[in-house]
Write a structure and sequence with these properties.
By secondary structure, this protein is α+β, with helices and mostly antiparallel strands. Helices cover 55% and strands 11% of the residues. Bound molecules: manganese (II) ion.
Length: 507
């Protein structure tokens, strides 16, 4: 895929038609292109192509994400300080502090000297620091990584290919997901899966081929019938389309379901993009009246968005051929957000024609206010401290490097119950980053946690209820205690009042 400065400017101009600074911005982008061209002259990529082609694709991808002029310039210049004689100071002089800072942040993430688990934790830590300092650094990093994965076959050693792919799969992709950037998450996973788990990749492909084809055929029928149903009820919609589940999430799900493909209900999903939020619910009702929904599979992420702000209605129905099909219903705004997450804040600037004073549409007003803030404050992007977004969440790791999301201030006990009730109930100790810790210690981003268990033990310590942070851990402890007949007294105050009550009753 060849991209040139012409492609980048075309997209940028289209996205910023009304911006009075457009001309100035284009000149800046062209200058960045010329600078990069000069800096990388005579350099080749492992594939043999001119180095600048990689910079062009990285920057092009950022322009597709509708990012600002600084980010697009940084995309062109991101490898200049690493690969050529030019310095951050040169970039700052030519393109300003902002561009220089993004390039510098990107370069910093790249420099990791550890190996094994230390490398992993260090990598994660650097990503979080970069995110909290300027979200644009991570966006350049994602674009750069996607292009590197696309050309991964040119790396000489299998080991290096695998390391880059693994890092993408286990660090970059989950972070993209947390930021709601599903499109980027999917690309990273699609490109890495076959390098990290080649056998599983082939297995997944083989396993699902016939199932996917069969369900795709039967989906076409359902799609036609849904369109008919919506027309009959005079509900206009923006689009409706089928979507195959991506291989990597599918593989992960198969592992959780004993590799039984029959238990995967969202192998193929049908997406309905409506004009309004109200229509989402109307469409859901109509579908449930006409096809039998699978019990317990309705999820209202509009009322309760996912922590990354993803919104949509999900349901699973049995269609004409008695195949389970997942249906996802959402508005165009929600759909854009689902693809680009945090980067979609620049899209849809003033396209609402609904009565915003109507209480029902309050959420839209909020969205618009939110966007006004962004529009009036060009520094918004710079100032989004992702630390705020992560405030209530932390990411920690299992010894096998699985990333686990927990509430801030969670303890090893919360972690143990998150893994499995049995792990929690049998927990007798914990190691954090290879050091034995107290079970009530607070976990931090990037910690690697190992739970020590005693297989003979199956009753949790009631004292744990005094410090666990997650609701689910609390529920699981209470459940296990009740099962083994332990009286739950959660804290000292309660203990005292219990004693007083006992004493009174005995009088
Ligand atoms: Mn690069």
């Amino acid at each position: 895929m060849t991209k040139t400065i012409g492609n980048i400017i075309e997209i940028y101009s289209h996205n910023n038609k009304k911006d009075p600074n457009l001309k100035k911005d284009i000149i800046k982008i062209k200058r960045a292109w010329e600078f990069a061209l000069l800096a990388h002259q005579n350099q080749k990529r492992l594939s043999g192509e001119d180095y600048i082609m990689h910079c062009a694709r990285t920057s092009y991808y950022l322009s597709v994400m509708n990012l600002d002029v600084e980010t697009i310039c940084a995309g062109l210049l991101h490898d200049v300080t690493e690969e050529t004689e030019f310095t951050i100071k040169d970039i700052a002089n030519e393109f300003g502090e902002d561009v220089a800072k993004i390039v510098e942040g990107d370069t910093k993430i790249g420099k990791i000297h550890y190996t094994g688990e230390e490398r992993y934790a260090e990598n994660l830590r650097k990503m979080f620091i970069a995110i909290s300092e300027d979200i644009r650094v991570i966006l350049v990093r994602f674009a750069d990584r996607i292009d590197n994965l696309r050309t991964l076959q040119y790396h000489k050693t299998e080991e290096k290919k695998k390391r880059i792919a693994l890092e993408s799969l286990e660090i970059y992709a989950p972070i993209a997901g947390r930021l709601g950037m599903y499109k980027i998450k999917e690309r990273l996973e699609d490109l890495s899966f076959k390098y990290v788990y080649p056998e599983e990749y082939i297995w997944t492909l083989k396993e699902i081929r016939s199932h996917i084809e069969e369900r795709a055929r039967s989906l076409t029928k359902t799609k036609k019938n849904i369109i008919k149903l919506l027309k009959k009820n005079k509900i206009s919609f923006i689009k409706i389309y089928g979507r195959k589940k991506r291989y990597y999430p599918l593989y992960q799900k198969l592992l959780r379901k004993n590799r039984d493909i029959e238990r995967i209900y969202d192998l193929i999903a049908l997406r309905i993009i409506t004009k309004t939020k109200e229509d989402c619910y109307t469409v859901l009702g109509l579908i449930h009246n006409n096809w039998q929904p699978l019990n317990g599979r309705v999820k209202d992420y509009i009322l309760r968005p996912k922590p990354n702000d993803y919104q949509s209605l999900h349901t699973t129905i049995f269609n004409e051929d008695h195949n389970p099909i997942e249906i996802q219903i959402r508005t165009e705004e929600m759909d854009t957000f689902a693809e680009f997450g945090i980067a979609s804040h620049w899209i849809y600037k003033e396209n609402y024609k609904i009565d915003l004073h109507d209480k029902k549409y309050q959420w839209i007003s909020e969205l618009i206010n939110w966007q006004k803030k962004i529009k009036n404050n060009k520094d918004y992007l710079k100032n989004i401290k992702l630390n705020d977004m992560f405030k209530t969440k932390i990411f920690v790791l299992t010894p096998k490097n699985d990333v686990i999301e927990l509430l801030e201030k969670s303890t090893p006990i919360d972690f143990a119950y998150h893994i499995h009730s049995d792990v929690g109930n049998r927990c007798v100790g914990a190691r954090v980053n290879n050091k034995i810790v107290k079970l009530d210690c607070e976990l931090k981003n990037g910690d690697i946690i190992e739970i020590l268990i005693d297989k003979k033990r199956n009753t949790p310590n009631p004292e744990w209820l005094n410090f666990v942070k997650t609701h689910s851990a609390e529920e699981k402890i209470k459940h296990a205690l009740q099962k083994s007949g332990v009286n739950i007294i959660t804290n000292f105050k309660e203990k005292i009042s219990q004693r007083i009550t006992n004493w009174k009753n005995s009088k």
